[in-house]
Amino acid sequence: MRGGVINFENKIFRKGNMKKNIFKSILLYSTIIFSIFIFSGCGYNTLVSLEEGVNSAWAQVENQYQRRADLIPNLVKTVEGAANFEKGVLTEVTEMRSKVGQMKLTVDDLNDAEKFAAYQKAQDNLSNALSRLLVVTENYPDIKSTENFKMLQTQLEGTENRITVERKKFNEAVQQFNTEARSFPTVIMAKIFGFKEKQYFKGKEGSENAPDVKFNLK
User: Fold this and answer.
1) By the 8 A CB rule, do 149 and 137 touch?
2) CA angle at residue 174 from 72 to 197, to 5 degrees?
3) Nearest CA to 119 among 98, 104, 108?
4) How far apart are CA 87 and CA 133, in angstroms?
5) How many CA atoms lie within 13 A of 21 on its CB side?
6) What is the C-alpha separation between 218 and 215, in angstroms, rounded?
7) What percent of the chain has pLDDT over 90?
8) Of 49, 50, 142, 181, which residue is 20 to 30 A from 92 by alpha carbon distance?
9) 108 burial via Cβ count (<10 Å: 0-12, 13-18, 19+)
10) Which residue, among 72, 73, 53, has the nearest Cα to 61 in the 3D structure?
11) Cα separations (Å) of 176 from 3, 27, 53?
12) 104 vs 107, 118, 191, CA distance in Å?
């Protein structure tokens, strides 16, 4: 009789455990489904997608900057052989290229206003130096007439145009991301998971003023 009571109690205990396990499983699956719904509904997946868009646009900007950097040594070599050419302009271009080469900006740094501004300033300084170099070569017909220089000049000008286009695309991608990250309720998800505002490329400092180009042909 005692054994029958024990078996009956064991059955009740096992049934109780089964109910608890079933309840835990239901609770676990409900939590997972709810989390997926929250992440999707509050923009987590959208933020991930838009951030990847920013990173992809940034990669294209870097590609064009690298293409320009690769052209500069040949351009300098072509020009430096000219008699009485302004050596200071060549020195400036070489130094600016070196500074740009030392600055590396990762996708994580796109959130850092200070690092991004320093990177843009270095690239803009190189652009200015190259512009001065091309202006100065206008006074040297022998340089301008060489096929190698004309080819490099065309490639360089084309690259500058591509840089402008890619920077515009990057800014558009950043605008989409920042707008989404600051919108409610996505802003809550952005703060929870550490999505930070991305930086924009800005106009060159002093670009609103006409350039003052001086020559020293002595």
Assistant:
1) yes
2) 115
3) 104
4) 10
5) 6
6) 9
7) 52
8) 142
9) exposed
10) 53
11) 72, 37, 9
12) 10, 10, 27
Q: Is the pLDDT of residue 24 over 90?
A: no
Q: What is the pLDDT of residue 116?
A: 96
Residue type, 55: N
Instruction: Find, among 56, 19, 64, the residue nearest to 163 by Cα.
Output: 64
* Tokens representing residue 47 in the block: 């933020």
Between 218 and 102, residue with greater pLDDT: 102
Contacts of 29 (CB under 8 A, 6+ apart): none
Give the domain ranges of the chain: 1-41, 43-218
Locate 82 and state its tokens: 């000219």
Greatest mean pLDDT range, 95-109, 164-178, 193-207: 164-178
Q: Are 132 and 213 in contact (CB under 8 A)?
A: yes
Write down the pLDDT at residue 209.
46
Residue in 62, 68, 179, 70 with CA at minimum distance from that of residue 126: 68
Q: How many Å apart are CA 137 and CA 86, to the nearest integer?
A: 9
Instruction: Return the structure tokens found at 134.
Output: 């091309």
- Contact at 8 Å (CB) between 180 and 43? yes
Q: CB neighbours of 30 closer than 8 A, spacing ≥ 6?
A: none
- pLDDT band of residue 211 (cuts 50, 70, 90) is very low
Write down the pLDDT at residue 164: 95
